[in-house]
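Entry 14. Ran structure prediction on the chain below.
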Amino acid sequence: MGIVIAILIFGLIVTVHEFGHFICAKLSGIKVLEFSIGMGPKLLQKAKGETKYSLRLLPVGGYCAMEGEDSTNSDPRSFRNAKLWKRIIVLFAGAGMNFVLGFVMLIILVSMMDGVPTTTVEDFKRTISSTDGTVTYYAESYETGLRQNDKIISIDGTRIYSTLDLNYVFDTYDPNTGHKVVVKRDRKRMALNDVVFKNTYGDGGTVDFAVIYKDKNPLTVIKGSGDLFMSMTHIVGLSIKQMFSGQLKKDDVSGPVGVVSAISESTEDSESFLDALFQVIYMTALITINVGIFNLLPIPGLDGGRLLFCFIELVRRKPVKPEHEGYVHLAGMVLLFGVMIFATYNDIIKLITGVKNG
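Output, structure tokens:
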């Protein structure tokens, strides 16, 4: 069931992405030859007007084939003969629709919560003496400067948009060292130095404070969804930066097999249907935002690589020769397939190792 759900998620994300290219191309008057969901051998195909609609075997990709996309063409409705601003919109639309899907998923996700989480401190771990009412705090963050109603803006320079960012920071921080925390207190920003987030209560937790949850209404749900969206784009951006800087280890790199495995595990480990649904929506939002950001990177073969050539054309006031651009995109696709093969191989090795260890 987990694998089926993963395939459906990939299918939805790819369909939305390619539909973004497709609908903008149609609205721009660009001739679309084929709109395909999936890659590889055709399972179904139907022609309607000038466009063929295809469903292919492998649900890990798709494409919107436009007239004259990779070569000079005399057709006035070809992609290369369209105005530059139209081409830019068409190329960006795929990632744009991924972002729209991610935001919609997050609205559903927040709507399922009991309340909308914020980054404002509600209280700290503490006990109150039954004899004299003395309050004893078991929170190092309180002892080192953090207070109730402080809205956390950043920790060690990492922008905090939502509790997702807090979890990301607390998963990687050193609980024994001080951190620079910027908060908003009494409507003023202030920097707190050497704040230690260490739970000394002894219950095994790492977070020594609780945040305020707001009641759900249309405004708070949209605001909370926007904060989560910013957090996800922020974390995905940090991960991509770490990948290109060599900070990520080989085991941290995953391809489609690893993603399918993660989705399958998250759904199978869920305690209830609602919990499983929550996990599926969360994973869908994270993956579609990841796909949108990655596709906008200026890498040949991706939408971002094609956008780069559009911006070069904007500066040069004339396009790069189609054959030269084609060679660059071909080299990029070979590189991307190589990375995909490596990531898939890495996923399979991790799965085999996990089975043996299990």
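The radius of gyration is 24 Å. Will compare against last week's run tomorrow.
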